[in-house]
Request: fold
Amino acid sequence: MLTETVEEMAAGLFRDVTIPTIHIGMATCGLAAGARSILELVERELEKRGIEARIVPTGCIGMCHNEPLVDITMPGKYRVSYRNVKALIIPQIFDAHFVKGDFAKKYAICQIPIGGHSPYEGLPLMNETNFFKGQVKIVSSRCGLIDPSSIEDYIATNGYKALRKMLTSMTPEMVIEEMTKSGMRGRGGGGFYTGLKWKLTRQSPGDEKYVVCNADEGDPGAFMDRSILEGDPHSVLEGMLAAAYAIGNTKKGYIYCRAEYPLAIRRLRKAIDDAKEKNFLGDNILGTDFSFDITIKEGAGAYVCGEETALLASLMGERGMPWPKPPFPAQKGVWGKPTVINNVETLGNVGHIILGGGDWYASYGSEKTKGTKTFALTGSIKNSGLIEVPAGTPLRSIVFDIGGGMLEKKIPFKAAQLGGPSGGCIPASGLDTPVDFENVVAAGAIMGSGGIVIMDEASCIVDTAKFFLKFTQDESCGECTPCRVGSKIMLDILTRITEGQGQEGDLDELIRLSMYVKSNSLCGLGAAAPNPVLSTIRYFREEYEAHIRDKHCPGTVCANLIKYVVIEEDCTTCGLCEPVCPTGSVTWDKGEVAHINLETCIRCKACVDACKFRAII
Amino acid sequence: MANTEHGASIEINEEEIDQICEEFGNREGAVVQILQTIQEKYGYVPAEVLERVGEDLGIPHSKMFGVLTFYSQFYQEPRGKFILKVCVGTACHVRGAGLLVDKIKENLHIEAGENTEDMMFTLEPVACLGSCALAPMAMVNGNTFGKLSADKMLDLIHQYKEEASSDNQEAVPAS
Reply:
């Protein structure tokens, strides 16, 4: 599947290209890794050698751990991907392609097939690498392949074909029918059936309706929507067009995007302008009587605005406070009118579903979660990045096949945190959990919007629970008491535990409060806030007890509970640890094993970092 | 005129404020966007301006203040030339973002949300910038930097300091 889509799409991109093409990953992750200076170096090198080539900035193909990525496509050949490109290796890559007519084996990861072009020998295809093997790319299929700021690239890869198909041969009911058949459920984490949502909004009486795209991706550790917005912005516009057409009486849509994503906003602006110019947006789209326009609204920094009713309040210029449902947005949304509100990833899938058919989409995935899901894979894992897999893929294969296993081979897997601040931790015993809406909930976490943070044995579960609770506590809007006060008391208890002041009965109190906050909060933020605490107590009770009873942090993270000691057998008596100690707590004499005075030690970890032999723990 | 905490003052043109409000049709629903436009212009939202916007839109000051303080990205005080947005999201937290924040605090003698005395830097820890694979990361005035360490962070601050001083020199006409 992966190869066919990519191959076909790439064929469209290279149809009339006769000169070499150099793709550079210029999404936020690429830029953070230094892609901008790589772009300049590539330009300079081309000029120096007098080579005529196209340089195409592209989005995120998912291999964030390999950024900066540079791909070279010679006319008629497959596209070769190079990883972690630095100034020094650019001339070597150029020599291989432009002088020897080959590729640079040492730095190449894989080759991306292009329909009608020929492969290189001795280099795995994209789908033969462990990272891509288990993936199925639908919504992220264009990310990293096309120039996201070029509407031509989008059109060359079947873009706006779904719009044309819809306007020429489908009634709004047929569009809803395809969405229903696809089994698509809201990818923002809610999991509500998209077809049903559109149907309900269509049935809501009203001569003025709205479509809103929720691009307020705020979960820490999640960047699926950012990758789609930066890598394939038009797909989101096309999804919104389909929603508008399906629900009827809709002339206007909004994209509510968080302000922390400046590049995504720039790409969206350009996409909207270009789509208007080509009449895919605006009045009488493609000569029909269907008109639709999209405005971008920038968030102003409030996590709760990812909750749909809070988002709508913010959109209307209010404080972003959620309102109790009903009324649902489908009945009363923006300006009191029926509104469809969908997440970026959900909308990005729509064009593919309309073109391929609902049945085709539903052929992927598990029984109750159809299709694919993107995940942001991060933390202590080797291949961190953006992946797209069929729903129901076991967690083990995500972590160990696609993710390549643990970042540090010697430190084993401890838990996977799914669903961000509303989610929970799944321990090693749950690695065979199929990742879809139902099974992840049964395992004590939520699939959420798709953030997966991998933790190893060197991390502390209590500290992680505290981290998430602090986050929700900071972001609680303060409207309802259970969330505002309840989360604060819970955070106080957790803070005490991590500082070595835990007491017997703390865990029971945490569970009692969790239940209270869960069942009495007004919106999803509060109702889910205790999840990270509950799931970690469920699976890692001993670790909490170690903190409370033994005043010991097994992950050596909680500073107050750490007792650094020098392992005599491993100490080479080199003395590197002695001068770095700011309080003079490390004593060492030539030829002697170092010693740490715990009375004066401030647990700054300087000696641990200084020791090259890992003799201080 | 609005006084900043350092005694410097910026000129506030009330007509300009009215014009911005008008561009958005003086609509109550556009208040977040209006404040964003104003902040882009002045770097923060001075108290007088907030009042003026309220008058223009017919919104009570209490409500205007409520909106302004609800969102973390509106500022009531002027901010430094370079905004050090250090990501403290999950992945960055796991990979030691706390150390970066501590190093900045120690080196620039500021707490989170504060400006350096010379108004050069503002420290702003933020939740997830969405480039978790390159954790820990930071964004300085829209430029992203990944795989940072405490030392690299200091180098970065140093670079920006140098950039600022060379900018100043260029601004001085050669005599």
Q: What stands out?
A: Chain A touches chain B through 52 residues (CB under 8 Å).
